[in-house]
């Protein structure tokens, strides 16, 4: 299905942003913007959990309980991500693992609440125990949301409530606004993840501040 003209530039932006993010996470190289390929090593388990400052929110084993300032570990499986509402202010710094799962969560959730069964909750999404699975899950979320986007026609872009995703204002705004918002989430969290990878590399793969190193 050919995307509606109003959707086409946002879809192209989404493809570019998600492609760059996935390349920065799994390599083997990425274009820094000047056409010169830069080698990229795949994300490691240690790097995924690296805490750039003390008290960073992360993904952790449910058995260990939430991290500093968090009131819950959200997600299915052995692990969860630090969370709980209302969020503290100022917002905590978060690890690559936390950001990866957050983006995966919002993509899978919105895909389901737009073109799926409309019942998936953040508590049902499994938090991976290792970096490779986390990146693969992100790629699955990227594909799921893209499929939901390419299933709509032009009229659907103006439909309020086309996405009923319950963790935002989706049910109250036109679908085109949701598409724009998701792109911004991918762009800014992707940039944060890329910066954290740079900082991790600049410290020589420094030690974890916290106690939740990969086993």
Structure notes:
The chain has five helices and five strands, in the order αββαβββααα. It is mainly alpha-helical and 215 residues long. It has a single domain, classed as Four Helix Bundle (Hemerythrin (Met), subunit A) (Up-down Bundle). The protein has a three-stranded antiparallel β-sheet with strand order 3-5-4, with helices on one face. β1 (29-31) and β2 form a beta hairpin. Mean pLDDT is 92; it is low at 208-215.
Helices, strands, pairings?
Blueprint: H1 8-26, E1 29-31, E2 37-39, H2 45-49, E3 59-61, E4 72-74, E5 79-83, H3 96-115, H4 131-149, H5 175-202
Antiparallel strand pairs: 1-2, 3-5, 4-5
Q: How many domains is the backbone divided into?
A: 1
Under CATH at level 1, the class stands as Mainly Alpha
Distance between the termini: 45 Å
Percentage of helical residues?
40-55%
Low-confidence stretches: 208-215
Overview features:
5 strands; three-stranded antiparallel beta sheet; 215 residues; disordered C terminus; globular; 8% strand; mainly alpha; two-stranded antiparallel sheet
Please give a quick description of this structure.
By secondary structure, the chain is mainly alpha-helical. The protein is built from 5 helices and 5 strands.
